[in-house]
Amino acid sequence: MKRVPPFAALVVAATLSTVPTPATASADAPRTESCAQVFTLGIGGSGEPTASNPAGRTVAAALQAIDDASDVSSASLAMAWRPAKVGRRTLRTTGRGWRSPYTKGARSAAKAAVGMLTTRADSCPDEAVALVGFSQGALVARLVLRSAPPAIADRIGAVELISDPVRSARDGTQVGTAPVRHHGILAASPAVARRVRIPRTHRALVTTVCTRGDLVCDAPGSRLDRHRGYADANRTDLLRAAQLLIADLGLVDPVTKSVDPTDELIRQINLVRAAGAICGTTAYAAVGPVTRVPLLDQLSQSYATRMAAEDFFGHVAPDGSDPSTRARDAGYPNLVAEIIAAGQTTAASAVRAWQLSPEHCAVLMTGREIGVGHAADSGSLYVHYWTLNARR
Asked: For residue 207, which phi and psi values (nearest 5 degrees)?
């Protein structure tokens, strides 16, 4: 058995931990024939709904992606409502006021959605619940989280916002080609954004899908056709978002299933940050999600891959390089705090191991710019290796 290096300042290594047995629902729990393990409510925007497809092509494609990504029983419902029809001119001016045409009817639609979720909860109390909203439907999903009573809001374990007009870098995980720091058209209006802000309890459970240049979710963009292309051109993004949603509900193992384990690692870190933490004797208040930096991702992934391939575990590699040396060689201009873990088979168990150390825990709560990596090699001692680098 290899020696695990001791903790040291902020640059520390997590020890091998025992993987907890996954919780399972009771086989004797009552369930009606129409109930499922996952229930997804889809809410569309204007321009796409038809009589046979009330939420439109994009939401239908997203719901199908969720079904494809899941290996558990699922049920979905597309909610019919009448969002105001809008064009390019309206979209360019809609951030000026809450009662603009783009937001018309959203509040009443959210009230109807809460009613539907309440009815579903009465019939199927054991279901995991997810929301999927496209464009104006994403706005409705935000209002559902804001207005639902705790008994209903607490049941919502994942949210997917496609072309969200209030898109913000502080909300959950970003999927797609739009720059993370670009915001949606309504986010530019503080009065509007404040009224539909994602509650802190759900912020880390959100996945946002946005294409570069989308006039709605990527405000610096100006191409309306990008906004209309999610059902077709962006199916890959919809599938990745669906995988994150299913993983967020805790219904798949993100290492053995198709969910990218580094995406799930980010999600688990954001869950810790959204809840706040006590690291040793220091209490940290809840904070927003991290900013994922591609160069730090590359640095972390490279080292995780190297540990797995060369079968070692520690901050100092066999060639003598340390975290500072590796960061400098990779071209990263700032100091980094590196934390690593080995042996944990899921992202959740790796994050739990880090939480047990005050030094690791502090990095999770104070790091703003981070990158992560994961590698697995069945021929190595620990098999799974996890790496995080945060700007110091």
From this structure: -115, 125
10-residue stretch averages of pLDDT, the chain, 392 residues long: 30 30 25 72 87 85 85 84 73 54 86 95 91 95 95 92 90 84 83 86 88 85 69 82 82 59 90 86 89 95 97 95 94 94 86 90 94 94 94 92
Helix (H) / strand (E) containing 301:
helix 294-310
Q: What is the 3-state secondary structure (H, E, C) of 9-49?
A: CCCEECCCCCCCCCCCCCCCCCCCCCCCCEEEEEECCCCCC
Give the integer Cα–Cα distance in Å for 278 and 211: 38
DSSP 304: H
Residues composing the chain? 392
- Which element (helix H / strand E) includes 372? strand 369-376
| Secondary structure of residue 310 in the 3-state scheme | helix
Residue with tokens 């030094």: 359
Bridge partners of residue 130, in order along the sequence: 40, 158
DSSP secondary structure of 86-139:
--HHHHHHGGG-TTSGGGTTHHHHHHHHHHHHHHHHHH-TT-EEEEEEETHHHH
